[in-house]
Amino acid sequence: MVVNEKVKLAITVASLVAATILLAAEYRRRRRRKQTSSPSSCYLHSDIKPQFGFKRVLADNSFSGFKHLKKKKLEDGGEKPSDSHPYESEITALLESPRLDEFEFLRGEYSLEMSGSYVWVETESELKKLAETLAKEKVFAVDTEQHSLRSFLGFTALIQISTQEEDFLVDTIALHDVMSILRPVFSNPDICKVFHGADNDVIWLQRDFHIYVVNMFDTAKACEVLAKPQRSLAYLLESVCGVSTNKLLQREDWRQRPLSEEMVRYARTDAHYLLYIADSMTAELKQRGIEDSSSTDDKFSFLLEASRRSNMICLQLYTKETEDFPGNAAASSLIYRHLNGHEDNSSISLDPKFQELVRELCAWRDLMARIHDESTRYVLSDQAVIALASNQPVTPEQIHDSIAQADLSSDSSPSAVICSHLDDVFQLTQHKLGKLDVILPLVLDKCLGTEGTCPISVFNYSLLINFNTKLTTNRSTPKRHKSLKRFTRKTSRDLFVKKFSCKAPVYHNCRIYANDGRLLCYCDRRKLEWYMSRGLAKLVEEDPLAIMLLFEPKGRPEDEGNDFYIQSKKNICVGCGEGDHYLRYRIIPSCYRVHFPEHLKSHRSHDIVLLCVDCHEVAHAAAERYKKEVAKEFGIPLFVRRVLDSVECESAGGGDSEDAGVSPLHLRTAAMALLRHGNRMPSSRREELLQTVKMYYGGRDISEEDLEKALLIGMSPHERRKLERKKGVTVSVKQENSNNGSVEEHSEEAPPGGDMNGESSVVGDDSGGDGAPELNDTQCNGNILHQQNSKLSLLGHGPHGKQVVEYLLKEYGEDGVRDFCQRWRKVFVDALHPRHLPGGWDVTHSGRRDFGEFSVYNPTKKVSTG
Ligand code: AMP
Ligand code: ZN
Ligand code: MN
């Protein structure tokens, strides 16, 4: 049944797409010919919605199904399909053997009263702290608030969590991309989560964050089992706690920040009393068990039944609704309801044109809602659809009036979608867009196509991509094919910019003066605050911020030839001057820089610059080419050629024969392909890949587990953690020494971001490679005997950077490193001919600097903190 529907949908989409090629061209021809109105500009160019800041969106608005969290289950022999519940076995275990000792929701002294204070959680570190707090609890209460009007699928705007001690309000808009931090406590079967009416919450948490609830007590289910006269939370609040709540607030716009006092009180109320209610209801359930049972065996039967029904809710899975044709279900139900309500007036309703128009409008509104990430009811209300289909207005003004009139009861004028795409509605009502099956591809192309009017986002990107890949496999003209390819590249570039460019100006250009009034440097706000909070400086100017140091700093930048540091810096690409977006670019590649002696790293604000994506690409490509030259020049290979399992290596008597082992990259690709498609690929290919993996294991036969293990070979702990986080598996690699060498980030005494002369926010995370210089592998001739505890990634450039820097230091001392830096600056300048480098920037930037009493690079300081 489900499969059947999927096939149907696939066929529909495919045929839609095929029709597009023909129609898109036709549409453009018509548009060019007519030139009636200028191409509509979409309202989304100026209407910024909070969800457009989300980077990780699990459920987008395309027609593809929802992918659930994958949890590796080695004992079951491989991975579960992603459409099954990742915690099914944990929940089933709870259903089969519930632990009675767990039904204790309150301990010790408890005051029912809601205190005046609560915790607003909006930063990643606050969320981590919350996760730590919750991990220590045996039980906590949860509720969520959704926003659904200005979003196609809806999103969680707030999560309320209450422990016996505190109420937490989690800003799930600000924290959307890092909510996985709460995954472990929610799936921990040893911690009971109390909800009221959890059916929706459970599914919403899956949809937005891949959070799965394991071990739940739902007070609504307890009501059911106790056959209470009502099951609403409002009723329980009244009857159990004597508290009243205004449920009208649940329909408020929960995206707003700050929340009004009233909304905060409502939100807290929904979670705060749940522990008390659960406690009182379990007592009642136990009591009822004793009264109603003949034997002591089933005196817990009521309680167990409530628990069982609660955990059944946890087994539910979020699915994206699919239908045979977009908007079809809504259209049918609208027509049906309309016919039933208008038996006397059936002449209009039975009009085939009316029904056709209802179907077209519903299909159009469905697609427009997906493209703009709005609810269908926001795009065009049901009553407006009916009004348009009945009135069949002939001018844009009449359309506008029809909608406004129909919606009078709810809101005033037509939605922003209608207003900026009124032309579409006009053509629909005039039947100018053609038949139903051609409308959608037309609209999609009109909105998101090469000359589309609407912005592309993570929500509609795959609508477009599916549509484009299908297009390119079709026999389109080579010219169109090329322009489409270019277009897809452009859209993915735009998304890349959105995802990776700096979200706020990098340079705050705050100033620090010496106590003689001379300018020492420009820096960011954080550093000013650091000096201020320690009483080391006084504020001398508010806007723009400037402070004066109360101690005597070591030297003055001009005296040291370091003019560079007393220039304010522009938030633009230093290559071309682009100011709309920029990314940080490291002129000295991290694979070398992380191995520099600490005090030579202090020139980060000089050697980390801002570039737009295009200049970034050019500079990066040049750097990659130059790395190859460095590798040749120094005779130090860029990639690890071969790895060999350490166990196998020992048994092979050292294993240093030249052709033992396998390239870590090849190993990983082969293992991945085998795990994913192993049983579907031709046996010859399978054998070939198996050989690659076997090479790593010294030729022995390999198991599924070996394949899994091979996936991690060559990864640094950092990369492994990233992978595990992505897969949502609990972190297994211990985080020892992960802040190795980054004194400036963790030292209590040092100003944030290092020495006096840099904007700390430019620094960022210094490397993809964890900043951890230790290499625990035994190595010879670019061959590595891999041991699991290596901190260095072998998938990237492995030990190359470390060896180059060691060589430079050994042969030429620190001057060698300085020259090496100059070479990289030259590579950068030659590749990009940057026109916007800040004044004082210099290829030969000396790097010789003294360090004052308060600098992190002060050697005495290093001893005390390092
Ligand atoms: P609650 O926990 O009762 O505050 O409801 C949680 C969320 O469900 C709210 O934030 C609303 O988005 C949604 N919701 C629940 N009931 C309704 C309703 N009757 N009308 C609109 N939205 C509702
Ligand atoms: Zn639009
Ligand atoms: Mn609520």
From TrEMBL:
Gene3D superfamilies: HRDC domain, Ribonuclease H-like superfamily/Ribonuclease H. Transmembrane segments: none annotated. InterPro entries: 3'-5'_exonuclease_dom (IPR002562), HRDC-like_sf (IPR010997), HRDC_dom (IPR002121), HRDC_dom_sf (IPR044876), RNaseH-like_sf (IPR012337), RNaseH_sf (IPR036397), Rrp6-like (IPR045092), Rrp6p-like_exo (IPR049559). SMART domains: 35EXOc. Residues 722-781 are annotated as: Disordered. GO terms for biological process: DNA topological change; exonucleolytic trimming to generate mature 3'-end of 5.8S rRNA from tricistronic rRNA transcript (SSU-rRNA, 5.8S rRNA, LSU-rRNA). One of its GO terms (molecular function) is 3'-5'-RNA exonuclease activity. PROSITE patterns: HRDC, SASP_1. Residues 732-742 have a biased composition (Polar residues). It comes from the Eukaryota. Residues 351-432 form the HRDC domain. This is HRDC domain-containing protein.
